[in-house]
Q: What sequence folds into this?
């Protein structure tokens, strides 16, 4: 080593030959000084290694049992199965070193798995011998616990979460569905069922249900109650099996609702004008007074302490045409959104051209509206107000019209039937099959369409939702805009390319773009 | 003619005994069987001496080194032992105690009646003693890169056996130095420690009982034991008598 480096002459060393001490054949010396054949015949390093072992296999879910309780999914002759088999052999092969392991082909229905191992072990005076060894695993069929339970009763659930919202539309549930999909909160649900005014989620484990309820409470102001029912009781080991039910009531205030605040709540916010618009619902409700541009936030606890209902919701929106805009103040940012106070002159679209009913109203949409625009708002002049809270106020000056948002209806009429460049995924829900399903379905599709328009118009609503690029969408050749302003649409960079790795997606032509 | 032998289950008889052309040393302790095999093989006229060396130690073969001219023992040998040896060995054999702090002479020195192969770092004084007592020329060399050549080789006036790991070039070199033919081989079923496994003189050898037939044939051929046997001489004479 060092001698060579120092340049000293080292005579070449050829390895001598000796006779094998047992059979006398010439060989080069090794640490046992026996030829390999003699060594092999004398020493068997696979002595004491297992040749047979047993595996338990669940034919339903193709899992193998790792005692005491875990079931591991593995395909035949896969990497996972190899690791699993080696792990089963581990305690028995402590003294030898496994160099290589591979599967030997066996008939798939033979219920035998053969493994060929190459084993190295030290024998005699340090000679290392390598030998190949075959282990045969017998597969015994045995249903795993979850499959047994499923076989016994397919609808078996342990915990159920019932989400309810007592309003006449399902917009909240569309939004929630997207939110759940994005965060994967319902990934552990055994079953999802649609009910009359809500959705039911069924889970196999109480903790999954609790996690789901927590997720919902963090996204939406909701109140929950839980209950349990005894299913069975084992007196000997004193274990009790329960069915747990969580009832989650979502607050009935939705976006774009017109609310008359009860006097106490209005006072707690510093005399916020009793008529407020709900601008945003996340884990707290944002209420905007359109006449003074003040925003108040109401969180779940505070709401449920003194609950109130909206008295006009987006169903009752009426379309108006803007005749004149008179900006009162400059654009300000309130609660992350821009508003500007203005006096506008509007007329109902149904009245326009027929009579001269013009309303002069104060609105918060001064920054958006120009004469000739269309706007949606609540018609309080013609409405039949029947609200308990309203009656509590004496001498309240109710404006005739409260405008809510700019309307893109007319533009949509022109572009009707045009496809969108994006699409949404949906949860697979079991629909509650009732007789009055048919008219509901039309209402449902109309509501869903409105929800999609909402998404297009409001970027902050898209914040927590994943939008996927629609591969079937072809932008039309006549892409140039004829009219001045565009319909609000989702910019392309917000869309997610759909990743197709599961088999049950509908369009799986190609994967990542 | 080589004989297989064992000292109380241990096959390394070279540790417990020493064989030269003039005498044989056997350790005390152990059964009479060990001693009687030597006696039976070597004949009544040949001195087979039971002894211990270095305050009663049994591993006499490892501690001392000698040939027909003399015997060297380590400095730990007691006076009684030296006296015992002097009394029992033939008169021409000089017994001397070396003062250098070497305990295991057998691994440092390996010799026949003409040449000794020693550890390269041996004292000059010890070398003088060796030349004096054993009447040999001293060659300082290592075997297979290891300085303690004594345990890796064993040679007589006729031939020698070295460990299997020695390269061909080294074998040739040693052979030229020692002027006897050398062969690489094993003893005691693949053991590479030759001097512990086999003790040999010009006409006979004893090896451990694990030695295989192949190894035995190698030993017999390299030390040329087949021809030089006392019994052979007797046979020859009988043949002559019959024919005449």
A:
């Amino acid at each position: 080593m060092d001698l060579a480096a120092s340049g000293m002459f080292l005579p070449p060393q050829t390895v001598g030959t000796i006779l094998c001490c047992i059979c006398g054949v010439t060989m080069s010396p090794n640490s046992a000084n026996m030829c390999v054949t003699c060594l092999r015949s004398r020493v068997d390093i696979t002595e004491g290694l297992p040749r047979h072992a047993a595996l338990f296999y669940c034919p339903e879910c193709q899992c193998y049992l790792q005692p005491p309780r875990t079931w591991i999914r593995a395909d035949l002759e896969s990497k996972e199965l190899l690791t699993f088999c080696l792990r089963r052999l581990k305690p028995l092969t402590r003294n030898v070193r496994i160099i290589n392991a591979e599967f030997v082909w066996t008939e798939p229905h033979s219920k035998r798995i053969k493994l060929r191992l190459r084993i190295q072990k030290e024998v005699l005076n340090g000679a290392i011998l390598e030998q190949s060894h075959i282990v045969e695993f017998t597969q015994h069929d045995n249903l795993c616990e979850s499959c047994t339970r499923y076989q016994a009763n397919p609808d078996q659930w342990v915990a159920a979460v019932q989400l309810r919202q007592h309003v006449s539309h399902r917009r909240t549930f569309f939004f929630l569905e997207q939110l759940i999909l994005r965060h994967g909160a319902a990934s552990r649900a055994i079953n999802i069922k649609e009910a009359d005014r809500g959705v039911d989620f069924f889970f196999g484990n109480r903790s999954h249900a609790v996690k789901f309820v927590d997720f919902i409470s963090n996204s939406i102001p909701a109140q929950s109650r839980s209950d349990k029912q005894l299913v069975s009781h084992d007196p000997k080991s004193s274990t009790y099996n329960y069915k747990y039910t969580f009832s989650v009531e979502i607050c009935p205030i939705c976006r774009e609702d017109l609310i008359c605040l009860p006097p106490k709540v209005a006072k707690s916010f510093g005399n916020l004008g009793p008529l407020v618009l709900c601008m945003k619902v996340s884990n707290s409700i944002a209420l905007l007074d359109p006449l003074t541009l003040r925003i108040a936030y109401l969180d779940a606890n505070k709401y449920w302490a003194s609950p109130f209902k909206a008295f006009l919701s987006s169903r009752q929106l009426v379309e108006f045409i803007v005749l004149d805009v008179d900006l009162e103040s400059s654009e300000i940012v309130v609660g992350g959104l821009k508003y500007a106070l203005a006096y506008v002159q509007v007329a109902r679209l149904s009245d326009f051209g027929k009579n001269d009913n013009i309303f002069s109203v104060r609105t918060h949409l001064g920054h958006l509206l120009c004469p000739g625009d269309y706007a949606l708002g609540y018609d309080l002049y013609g409405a039949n107000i029947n609200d308990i809270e309203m009656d509590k106020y004496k001498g309240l000056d109710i404006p005739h019209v409260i405008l809510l948002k700019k309307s893109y209806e007319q533009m949509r009429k022109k572009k009707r039937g045009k496809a969108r460049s994006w699409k949404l995924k949906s949860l697979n829900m079991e629909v509650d099959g009732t007789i009055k399903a048919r008219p509901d379905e039309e209402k449902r599709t109309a509501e869903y369409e409105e929800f999609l328009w909402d998404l297009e118009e409001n970027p902050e609503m898209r914040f927590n939702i994943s939008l996927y690029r629609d591969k079937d969408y072809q932008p039309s050749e006549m892409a140039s805009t004829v009219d001045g302003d565009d319909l609000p649409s989702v910019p392309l960079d917000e869309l997610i390319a759909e990743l197709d790795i599961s088999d049950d997606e509908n369009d799986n032509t190609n994967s990542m773009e | 003619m080589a004989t297989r032998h064992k000292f109380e289950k241990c096959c390394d008889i070279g540790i417990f005994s020493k064989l030269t052309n003039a005498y044989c040393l056997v350790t005390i302790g152990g059964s009479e069987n060990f001693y009687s095999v030597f006696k039976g093989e070597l004949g009544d006229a040949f001195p087979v001496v039971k002894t211990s060396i270095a305050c009663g130690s049994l591993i006499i073969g490892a501690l001392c080194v000698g040939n027909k001219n003399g015997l060297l023992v380590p400095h730990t040998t007691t006076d009684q032992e030296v006296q015992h040896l002097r009394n029992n060995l033939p008169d021409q054999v000089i017994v001397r105690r070396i003062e250098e702090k070497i305990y295991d002479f057998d691994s440092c020195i390996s010799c026949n009646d003409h040449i000794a192969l020693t550890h390269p770092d041996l004292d000059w004084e010890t070398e003088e003693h060796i030349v004096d007592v054993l009447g040999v020329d001293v060659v300082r060399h290592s075997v297979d890169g290891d300085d303690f050549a004594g345990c890796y080789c064993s040679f007589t006036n006729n031939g020698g056996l070295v460990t299997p790991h020695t390269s061909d070039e080294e074998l040739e070199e040693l052979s030229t130095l020692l002027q006897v033919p050398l062969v690489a081989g094993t003893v005691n079923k693949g053991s590479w420690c030759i001097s512990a496994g086999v003790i040999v003189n010009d006409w006979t050898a004893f090896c451990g009982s694990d030695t295989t037939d192949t190894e035995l044939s190698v030993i017999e051929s390299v030390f040329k034991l087949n021809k030089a046997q006392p019994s052979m001489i007797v046979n020859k004479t009988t043949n002559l008598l019959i024919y005449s």
